[in-house]
Amino acid sequence: MSRDPSPTRRQILARGLALATAAAEPAKAQGPDDFKWFDGHLHLVSQDLQRYPLWPGPPPDGSLPPGSAPAPGASVQEGQPHLKPTAEQVVRWMDEQGVATLAAIQRRSSYGTDNRYVLDCADAHPDRFRAVVVLDADDPATPAQLRDWTRTRKIAGLRLTGAKSSAGGYPWLDSPASLRTWTVVSDEGLTMDLAYAPQFFSADALDAILRTARQFARTPIVLDHLGWPAVTGAPGFGFANYPSGLTDQPNVFFKLTTGNLNILEEAHIPAQAVLRRAVDRYGAQRVLWGSDMGSSAGSYAEMVRRARAAGAALTTAERRQVFGETGRSLFLRGGAARV
User: Which of 312, 244, 238, 247 is nearest to 273 (CA)?
Assistant: First the structure.
């Protein structure tokens, strides 16, 4: 992947001034965009409980979906609607907000590994949705199932979630069985979408992800919720605590979501300064946005508005990349082509 040339001293000073200004001033409203947005993270839930029954139990790792109390940033959502939208509702909202396409992420807390609804939605709306399925990476049946879906359904990637095991490792990332699943993702040119639990910064989790990213260097890996950076102020905004190797690992991408915006709002840290820092550190080509509609509270219009405000310190070209091109390249055009 091509990289931007190193910034000059003048550019570094200018960016530092932009960060300081963003930290001191409220976000400015942004006008209409001259490009179509891509939403890299939205959960769909059917109202047809006979055809698509809800999963009866909690996630095996005990985690909660982002934005659900007592998750970080939950208090800022009090009084906001917590919607679980259908595909038809989402298509209407997308048209209203200028969002052309999106990654429909299987809602694990609603359906577990029963991906029927997200797959059916992607098949019914191929010009709007691509499915990111959730499966058990340790299940011996997963590799064959994944290969079949790449040929018969509109899928773009696989999402894995999990916490540290009692033995101290991350078997859902690097056990022999899960590595067979990773091999299929790599072979089929899919994108791997990762969310570790619990929803707080973990250097150990990021170290494990970095090791796997190096092993599968041609597989694009998206860290949901920016990888849960620790809530700190300028100048690092939590990214200084990340493994240094992530900066130069071109197949690792960072997804800003409403869950991050909630945490930052609660901590009184300006989101536009944090997004500016993420883009400076990793490049706009490795940063994307996802609404997290279906897990985080709020209306879709409000989520888009808050994302647009978070991009206030970016250039027009950077906004086009973060809110459009990065996500499209990962979930619509074949993620392996990005690496």
Answer: 312
Q: Which CATH class is domain 36-338?
A: alpha beta
Examine the pLDDT at 188 and tell me if it is beyond 60. Answer: yes
- In this predicted structure, the answer to whether residue 74 has a pLDDT above a threshold of 50 is yes
- Residue range 299-319: average pLDDT? 97
Distance, in Å, from the CA atom of 146 to the CA atom of 158, rounded to the nearest integer, reads 8
Stretch 165-188: mean pLDDT, rounded?
94
Please report the DSSP string for 167-231 in residue order: TSS-HHHHSHHHHHHHHHHHHTTPEEEEEESSSS--HHHHHHHHHHHHHTTTS-EEEGGGG----
CB 84 within 8 A of CB 49: no
- Alpha carbons 92 and 159: distance in angstroms, whole number: 26
CB half-sphere exposure, 245, CA atoms < 13 A: 12
- Residues 94, 291 contacting (CB under 8 angstroms): no
Could you tell me which residues come within 8 angstroms of residue 213 by beta carbon, excluding any fewer than 6 positions away? 219, 221, 249, 251, 252
Q: What is the pLDDT of residue 127?
A: 95
Task: Check: CB of residue 196 under 8 Å from CB of residue 62.
Answer: no
What is the C-alpha separation between 243 and 204, in angstroms, rounded? 9
Q: To the nearest whole percent, how much of the chain has pLDDT over 90?
A: 74
Give me the pLDDT at residue 208, please.
96
Q: Please tell me the distance from the alpha carbon of residue 238 to that of residue 277, in angstroms, as a whole number.
A: 10
CA atoms within 13 Å, Cβ hemisphere of 135: 28
Neighbours of 236 (CB within 10 A): 14
Domain ranges of the chain: 36-338
Q: Are 259 and 295 in contact (CB under 8 A)?
A: yes
Burial label for 230, CB within 10 Å (0-12, 13-18, 19+), is middle
CB 335, CB 190: distance < 8 Å? yes
